[in-house]
Every structure is written in structure tokens, then in C-alpha cells.
Amino acid sequence: MAKARNLLLLSSSRLHGHGYLEHARGQLEDLFKGANVKTVLFVPYALRDHDKYTATVRDALKPWGYAVEGLHTKPDRAQALKEAQAIFVGGGNTFVLLRTLYELELLEPIRELVLRGGLPYVGSSAGTNVATRSIHTTNDMPVAYPPSFEALALVPFNINPHYLDPEASTQHKGETRDERIEEFVAYHGLPVLGLREGTSVRVEGEKATLLGDRNAKLFKAGGGSEELPPQADLSFLLQK
């Protein structure tokens, strides 16, 4: 029998006025303690320097009592995933991250372990993008070319991390973030959740909740949008 999925999808790892991951400490510890996690397997492929990136995450989590290992250091990545207590897929460039996951043939193992094995999954920014249906709604430049934009599909909707509201007073006349997301919705007919900085989505089985102290903006599959308050029940988005 498949175990319930257990996800924390962060808009970002950094928030103004806080240290790295500090704003999400309570959310991370809630997930880790609930799953009896002591060691986190970090997936650093969204940035070029994998060692440095892993060290950054290790330095953040070690004072809280968690060890961090880099997946890139494991000679048998598939086995390391099977033995992992939790995985954390960090932010950076979403195209580079997804291309690497395809190249290393990690998409299916991660998907299987998370959706059927209940492996706790933490994503931040790019790591959140690849947890969704596709990376169509990332803000990143396509500096790399993955074989497909289809991603892990741990949740059946798309997310736009780092969502920014249009500035009413701006003199900029180019497309706004809203217009670009609305374009995706028009072509694909799928909902997109705009996650503002400091917010995240917690998924426990078939239940999803908006965490943080700011609203999220839902761009509806049929058009239009809606502001969702902190602690909003997002479980309806899990219905395929």
C-alpha cells in the first residue's frame, strides 16, 4: 500500500530580515520531526557549485540538529534515494535542475519514492517548480535545455515561486507577471498558484495548506484569479 505524500514546497529559501531558511524553520521541523528525520539528502543540481551549495544547507540545518548529505557525493544515487530519510531539492536555475534530473535518470525514482513510499520532500524555488506538473511557470532564464518541461508532478498543478504583484505606479509597459501566468493558463487550462516570498504549501496526503503570513494568488484554470489567505485549505488543487 502506498504511503501518503509528505511535501513542503517553499517559495524561497531566503526572506528579507532572516537567515538562510530561518523563516521556514518551524515548517521544516514540523515535517522532519513528524517523519523522525535526522539526516537530509540534499539535491544541489540547480546551482553550479554542488559542494558549496550543500555546505550552505548543512550550515543552516546543523544548528537545528539535522545532518545534511549531498546527493552528488553518492556513487549510487538511486540507492542513496532509497535509503534517504528526506530529500531537499534546492533552488537556483530550474532549467538546469530539470535537465540534470533527466540526465541522471532521477525523475522516476524520486516520483516513486515520494508518491508511493512517502519519502518527505522539501522543495525551494526551483525545487518547488520541479515538484509540480511542469516548469512552464518558472521565472528563470532557459540557460539549459531539458528534454521536456514535464517535471515530477508530485502535485497536479503549477506554482509560480517568488510571485510579485504588478506595481500600479510603475512606468514599465512590458508584460507583468500576472499577464505571463494568465498566458500559460489560457494555453494549458491549468491552475497556477502564485507563492509570495515567505509562503509555502504543505501537502499531507490529500490535504494541502497554505503556510506563511501572506496571501497566495490563485490563477484559475478557467480564467480569473483569487486571493487565498494564510492557512487556506488548498486541497481542492490536488484533485486531478
Automatic annotation (TrEMBL):
Keywords: Cytoplasm, Dipeptidase, Hydrolase, Protease, Serine protease
Catalyzed reaction equations: Dipeptidase E catalyzes the hydrolysis of dipeptides Asp-|-Xaa. It does not act on peptides with N-terminal Glu, Asn or Gln, nor does it cleave isoaspartyl peptides
A cellular component term, taken from the record's GO annotations: cytoplasm
One matching Pfam family: Peptidase_S51
Primary location class: cytoplasm
E.C. code: 3.4.13.21
GO biological process: proteolysis
Record SUPFAM superfamilies: Class I glutamine amidotransferase-like
Compartments, as annotated in UniProt: Cytoplasm
Any one Gene Ontology molecular-function term assigned to this protein's record: dipeptidase activity
Enzyme class: hydrolase
Biological function: Hydrolyzes dipeptides containing N-terminal aspartate residues.
Family stated for the protein in its record: Belongs to the peptidase S51 family.
Name of this protein: dipeptidase E
Organism: Drosophila ananassae (Fruit fly)
